[in-house]
Structure formats: structure tokens, C-alpha cells
Design goal:
Strand content: 5-15%
Number of strands: 4
CATH class of one domain: Alpha Beta
CATH architecture of one domain: 3-Layer(aba) Sandwich
Distance between the termini: 34 Å
Order of helices and strands: HHEHHEHEHEH
CATH topology of one domain: NADH Oxidase
Structural class: alpha+beta
CATH superfamily of one domain: NADH Oxidase
């Protein structure tokens, strides 16, 4: 007998389907109780050997936020150069909402991880996998609460670690933009911008042995669908400007802000 009703099960799948990596935010702050719930959701994540390596730094100082933004912008330029013929296309993408979002968090790996051998002796990177689970938990909880979230990974980890006065042995993993939004993108932004397409599930699953293909390049570049113009407007599902505002919506309930259930979300995620 199932522990959950059909409606509850459907809601879980709907949240996963409608989660988006957001870049456009309203600046309204999140309710303190809501932020506590999102952090608690992150802390419910599984971790290898129950090591719980995740740590979160809440960035409240405006000048510090601006310095983090400068680090991300510097890496954005370097990433664009590394992309060769796609440099111009990449520079037209909006890849973060650091200055606009209501809350800014940095997710990090705690120091002393070498002491945890259980599940990591041959795969020490499982500490990073555990943090990713915590981030995903927060992401899904945020979407269910009507809050947007974006994962930013464009930064030099050691430079950010020093900026945040993190101890030796720790490592920042993600800059997380959280906040209400006017609307959620109808599809992943990078699909709408024709940067990439989501692979089919069938192309990712092998039986018994690895079969032909299966490399990350097999997903290919997006060839159809929506597009983003040079000014940052996204077609299909409303206009999203680089200033962080969208056309549809307004402010709704849940804390007095946003829409979609009461309140209203990388270069690395969709």
C-alpha cells in the first residue's frame, strides 16, 4: 500500500517537471520562516556515510554581493573566450541574477572531509555529490513554495573562498540566487535560447553494458524552439529582460509577493 495519495505523488513529479534554473528575479526579500524551511529541506538530503558536508553562507552585505557579482562577471568573460565560435552567443545569455535576487546563498563543502572514508575511499568526489543533493532538495522545495532559484557556477573557487573568509580545506560549490519571480520560464531558459536541448531518457539508459554512443555531446545543440534576441528578451511564455523583470504576472499572495501558488526561479542546470 502506498504511503502517499495519487495527488501527492503527482505533485512531486509536477514540481520536478516545472523546476527552472532562474535568472530573472524580483528584489523583494524572502520571509524568514520560508528561508528557514528551504534550508531545512536542503539539510534533509542524503549524504554518503551521513557526512553532511554541506554548509551555506547567507550573503546580506550589499558590497559583498557586488564583489561576488564581479567575480562571476570576470569568469563569464573567460568562459566566453573559451567557447570559441559561440563566444558572442554566450555573452548574450543572462547567466545570473546576483544583484537582483531577494536572497543570495553560497553552498560550500566543509573542511575536514578527508576524515570521512565511508563511501569515499575510492570516490572522494562523493562529498560534492552529497552537496548537489542538498542543493536539489532546496531547489525543489523552493519551486513548490513558488520561489525561484538559480545555480551559478561561474567563479574561481579559491578566490571566492578567500573573499568569504572560508577556512582552509573548505570549497564553495555554488552561488545560489533565490527570490520571487514574475513568472517561471515555460521551458528551461537554455532551451528557449537555443543553447542546448534536453536529451531523451532512452538515449541515457543502457542495459548490462555500455552501448553505442552515450557521450555528453550526443545531446547536441538546440536547433529549434524559442530563441533569445540580443536584448535578452525570450520568446514564448512572456518577455524576460536582463533587468530581472518579466511581463506576465504581478504580485500575489504567499508573503504578499509573486505568483504561481503564492510567491514566485545556470550555466549548469536547466
Amino acid at each position: 500500500m502506498a504511503d502517499f495519495t495519487r495527488e501527492e505523488i503527482d505533485a512531486v513529479y509536477r514540481v520536478m517537471t516545472e523546476r527552472r534554473d532562474m535568472r530573472h528575479f524580483l528584489s523583494d526579500p524572502l520571509d524568514a520562516a520560508l528561508l528557514d524551511r528551504l534550508l531545512a529541506a536542503a539539510h534533509l538530503a542524503p549524504s554518503v556515510g551521513l557526512m553532511q558536508p554541506w554548509r551555506f553562507i547567507r550573503v546580506r552585505d550589499r558590497s559583498l554581493r557586488e564583489r561576488i557579482h564581479a567575480l562571476v562577471e570576470a569568469e563569464r568573460v573567460q568562459t566566453a573566450h573559451a567557447l570559441g565560435e559561440r563566444e558572442g552567443e554566450f555573452m548574450r545569455l543572462k547567466v545570473e541574477g546576483i544583484l537582483e535576487c531577494g536572497e543570495l546563498l553560497v553552498a560550500a563543502l566543509a573542511p575536514g572531509r578527508h576524515k570521512h572514508v565511508f563511501g569515499r575511499r575510492t570516490m572522494p568526489e562523493m562529498d560534492l555529490a552529497s552537496v548537489a543533493c542538498a542543493i536539489q532538495n532546496m531547489w525543489l522545495a523552493a519551486r513548490a513554495e513558488g520561489v525561484g532559484m538559480g545555480w551559478v557556477s561561474l567563479f574561481e573557487p579559491e578566490t571566492l573562498r578567500e573573499l568569504l573568509r572560508m577556512p582552509a580545506g573548505s570549497r564553495p560549490v555554488a552561488v545560489l540566487c533565490l527570490g520571487y519571480v514574475r513568472e517561471f520560464y515555460p521551458r528551461p531558459m537554455l532551451e528557449m535560447a537555443q543553447w542546448a536541448r534536453r536529451c531523451s531518457v532512452a538515449s541515457l539508459v543502457h542495459t548490462d553494458y555500455w552501448s553505442e554512443g552515450g557521450s555528453v555531446e550526443d545531446g547536441g545543440r538546440m536547433e529549434d524552439g524559442g530563441r533569445m534576441d540580443h536584448g535578452g528578451r525570450m520568446e514564448h511564455g512572456g518577455r524576460m529582460e536582463h533587468g530581472g523583470k518579466g511581463e506576465h504576472g504581478g504580485k500575489g499572495e504567499h508573503g504578499g509577493k509573486g505568483e504561481h501558488g503564492g510567491s514566485v526561479e545556470d550555466g549548469t542546470a536547466g
